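Problem 12. The chain below contains 319 residues. Write out its predicted structure in token notation.
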Amino acid sequence: MQAPVTPSNEASRLTALRSMEILDTPAEERFDRLTRMAKRMFRVPIALVSIIDENRQWFKSNESLPASETPRSISFCGHAILGDDIFLIADALADPRFADNPLVTGAPHIRFYAGCPLRSAGGFKIGTLCIIDTEARGFDEEDAIALRDLAAMVEDELSAFQKATTDDLTQISNRRGFMQLAQYSLNFCARQGAPATLVFIDLDRFKPINDTFGHAEGDRALVAFADAMRRSFRSTDLFARLGGDEFVVLLTSAAQAEAAMVIDKFSAVIGAYNTEAQRGYALAFSSGMVEFEPATHREIGTLLAEGDARMYAIKAAKR
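Solution.
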């Protein structure tokens, strides 16, 4: 078996992929509609929107494959993102790269595969729209045109997804994007018995920045704060601008004591920004921290509300 090689731009590709914040999000009809269409159009048993993460391929849409992800090392899609056009395997058993692949010798018994690369807005190949059959078959130019057209539609939906879940000003997640991903993360932590801590953050004395320096400077302050969040938190942490001067971060695999140390480091990053930027004001924040308890915080909204209440109590005490 031949495992897919790593693209030369892998680090940038993964950065672009993770900035889309689509990994591990729930199924959506707009993607499922396209895989159903591909399945009917090509009369295949399986059609997927497959996203290639660092060590896995994860399925944003999965029409009839009983798995949510498989290892990247055995994926056909890992090979597909290495090229610029459709990656075609007419008969996997006759191809030495795949004849002994466990996805060929075992379930789902792939014989035919055609995958069209999906590109991010920046042109990075982040996955494929692919069709799979359990029998060898042909694939002509008309088929190729149809698969490319469907892949272009998937790319449009990926772009729309990112716009709908990204804050226009700061380019980090907005409330909608955070709520989707955070609920999935809480469910995962509950299943695995892993800790998590939510920190609700509100900027201090933000209104005087707008009043004294103008709204353009206020926007600059919000962008600077979001940039500091990018530099401070891990790729596995979820952070977002909820609206106005309110932000949030969900630190996964971190109990409250560890989360408190992370927030202290973040506060130091903000302090360093203030010293360097010399904007005539200092960025500062109040935060409310809540450790995830599966029995109490079944919904992310409950955890968020508790963090909000704790933050305001701390903010009121400062006054």
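Discussion. The beta strands are 46-52, 56-63, 69-71, 87-89, 112-119, 125-133, 196-203, 238-243, 246-252, 285-291. Students who got a different answer should revisit the alignment rule from Section 12.3.
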